[in-house]
Amino acid sequence: MAENKRMAACLDITRRMNPADVETTQGDLIFLADDLTGQILANVDLPLQLETDTAVGRSFIISDYNRDGDSYRSPHSNKYFPPYAEGALPNAELRQLETEANELMAKYVELYYEKGGESSAYFWESSDGVAAAVLIKKEYNSKETGQKGTWNSIHIFKITPFGTGKFNFTLTTTISLQLGIDILNLAGNLVRKAEKKGIKCQTGSDKVRMMGQMVEESENKMRAHIETVYFGRLKGIVSDLRSVTELKNLPSNRMVIAPN
């Protein structure tokens, strides 16, 4: 019980700190509670990073979901980098699902993220079914305008049997967004859950397609929410702080400073 309370306190601290400094926050928490290192690494999501699969010459996303020790498994060659002979590997069925999911998400990123987007999908066995992580990363950096931004999507699936030929799909999506110009930086996280019950899936490909549909639906809804609610709220706050209306167009009952 005491350990649960300490872990809850760690997560509460993370939520209150600047999302742009999450890597520093995670390191500080591990320093203060090194016995909770595994739980902290598993529950505090860091900005996604890229590694190169030298076996095939392609990039892949590294995270806690494809880590074993200090090495990370590539979804392309199914090998660990740096090499790790004892690294865990998915069974043949999960590997097939993983391969199809990576091909599907590569097409999805090409359509929605254009050049520069990267995706990786990883599957593993859970206590009552199958679990998977679909990761997407896109960075933008313009030297001409000074504008920069990073989009990280972490989609965690849990797929459990629901009768003969039917499955429940539970999705938890975390979107981490960082935006900035030379004089201003914004960062934040948004988490949403979705569930579909009793979905008929005759093949593994059916499961992968359902996962793709849920990722698309979740990201579209969350992007619209970020744009309309959060950016709209920010615009409203700025407008309340300083109006752009010219003095001649202000209502007559508004008090203004008379020019000298």
UniProtKB/TrEMBL annotation:
Superkingdom as given in the UniProt entry: Eukaryota
Predominant subcellular localization, coarse grouping: cytoplasm
UniProt cross-references to Pfam families, sorted A to Z: F_actin_cap_B
Localization of this protein: Cytoplasm, Cytoskeleton
Keyword field: Actin capping, Actin-binding, Cytoplasm, Cytoskeleton
SUPFAM superfamilies referenced in this protein's UniProt entry, alphabetically: Subunits of heterodimeric actin filament capping protein Capz (SSF90096)
Function (record text): F-actin-capping proteins bind in a Ca(2+)-independent manner to the fast growing ends of actin filaments (barbed end) thereby blocking the exchange of subunits at these ends. Unlike other capping proteins (such as gelsolin and severin), these proteins do not sever actin filaments.
Record family assignment: Belongs to the F-actin-capping protein beta subunit family.
Subunit-level organization: Heterodimer of an alpha and a beta subunit.
Name of protein: F-actin-capping protein subunit beta
Naturally occurring in which organism (per UniProt): Blattamonas nauphoetae
Taxon lineage: Eukaryota, Metamonada, Preaxostyla, Oxymonadida, Blattamonas
